[in-house]
């Protein structure tokens, strides 16, 4: 399986008013194979959305991509001009934003909004044909066809969320980014929507970057998982490994911050303290302050990468195999 997306040494900075900057994404490497689903997990503020926006070149000032490469299907994303980007977005990569429910235009019917997408991207400008395509997409996410004539405010939160997902799929993108797409919905609806997306993935063979802080949901739906802490990917491994044998103490803590899927009651250890302030990055490992395994090296030397057959992590004192 070839890689659809390759990200190398990506750095994204937020320029501050006094001319300094905060490095929200620091030397991040990852790839996503064709048809693969990669999970990106980590506490709020660790840089997940910043990565997602950068992949689509939708980052706005004060964000600045200061280093790295982003390549999708052989195309250099960072070299693209605006005209090229407009064709590339939604067609090659599409994204369901964190606040996706607010992305719909409130004064335009759903039918019209689908029509505009198809027309803009040269799929069809025939109204009947567009309606048929929109109906098919809505069926996928479980919205009855007759609701096409409705305005977004007439939909429940869950319905709006589904509509946005249907739109993100409208142009059959090669990569679908889901940035905490369902956090506003209850768990049953969340799982239901995700199931539908994954059925579709099987059918059409697109890839997924699934961002969430709910690592249990991620383990259910992703092939591989990358764990982010304070702007860095600290561990990456197949979902099974993350579940059964995480090596980074942060992964371990994150994993234990949520009740298990099967609903068995277990003690939630969580992680003490709060995420690192990116304005004062300590010497050594970024997770030192909160780590139950921190030793002397962790306060003096930044951990190097340790690679294992299909995984890697950055830690001086990893959990044992
Ligand atoms: N508009 C902004 N201006 C300045 N800094 C920002 C801005 N947005 C995000 N950041 C910085 O980038 C970090 C990562 O943010 P974000 O990518 O939204 O994290 P996540 O999606 O993981 O919650 C934040 O902790 C913050 O320091
Ligand atoms: Mg985010």
Which descriptors apply to this entry?
4-stranded antiparallel sheet, 321 residues, 28% helix, binds adenosine-5'-diphosphate, alpha/beta, Rossmann fold, globular, binds magnesium ion
Give an account of the 3D structure:
- It is a single chain.
- The protein folds into two domains: 232 residues, P-loop containing nucleotide triphosphate hydrolases (Rossmann fold), CATH 3.40.50.300; 70 residues, no CATH class.
- The chain is an alpha/beta fold.
- The two termini are 28 Å apart.
- Helix 3 crosses helix 4 and helix 4 packs across helix 5.
- The model has no long low-confidence stretch (mean pLDDT 90).
- The protein is built from nine helices and twelve strands.
- The strands form two sheets. The protein has an eight-stranded mixed sheet with strand order 6-7-8-3-9-10-12-11, sandwiched between helices.
- The radius of gyration is 20 Å and the shape is globular.
- Bound molecules: adenosine-5'-diphosphate and magnesium ion (MG).
């Amino acid at each position: 399986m070839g890689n659809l997306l390759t990200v190398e040494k990506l750095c994204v900075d937020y320029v501050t008013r006094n001319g300094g900057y905060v490095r929200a994404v620091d030397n991040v490497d990852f790839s996503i194979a064709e048809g693969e689903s990669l999970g990106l997990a980590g506490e709020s503020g660790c840089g997940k959305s910043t990565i997602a926006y950068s992949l689509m070149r939708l980052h706005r000032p004060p964000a600045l991509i200061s280093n790295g490469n982003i390549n999708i299907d052989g195309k250099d994303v960072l070299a693209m001009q605006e005209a090229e980007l407009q064709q590339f977005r939604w067609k090659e990569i599409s994204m369901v934003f964190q606040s996706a429910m607010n992305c719909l235009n409130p004064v335009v019917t759903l039918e019209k909004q689908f029509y505009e997408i198809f027309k803009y991207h040269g799929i069809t400008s025939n109204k009947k044909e567009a309606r048929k395509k929109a109906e098919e997409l809505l069926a996928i996410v479980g919205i009855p066809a007759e609701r096409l004539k409705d305005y977004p405010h007439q939909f429940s939160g869950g319905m709006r969320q589904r509509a946005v997902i249907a739109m993100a799929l409208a142009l059959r993108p090669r990569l679908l980014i889901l940035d905490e797409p369902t956090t506003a919905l209850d768990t049953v609806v969340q799982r239901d929507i995700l199931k539908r997306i994954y059925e579709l993935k099987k059918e059409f063979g697109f890839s997924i970057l699934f961002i969430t802080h709910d690592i249990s949901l991620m383990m259910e739906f992703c092939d591989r998982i990358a764990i982010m802490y304070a702007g860095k990917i600290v561990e990456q491994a197949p979902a099974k490994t993350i579940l059964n044998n995480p090596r980074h103490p942060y992964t371990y803590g994150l994993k234990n911050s949520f009740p298990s899927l099967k609903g068995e009651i277990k003690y939630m250890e969580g992680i003490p303290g709060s995420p690192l302030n990116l304005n004062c990055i300590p010497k050594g490992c970024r997770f030192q302050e909160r780590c139950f395994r921190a030793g002397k090296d962790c306060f003096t030397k930044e951990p190097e990468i340790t690679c294992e057959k299909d995984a890697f992590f950055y830690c001086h004192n990893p959990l044992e195999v």
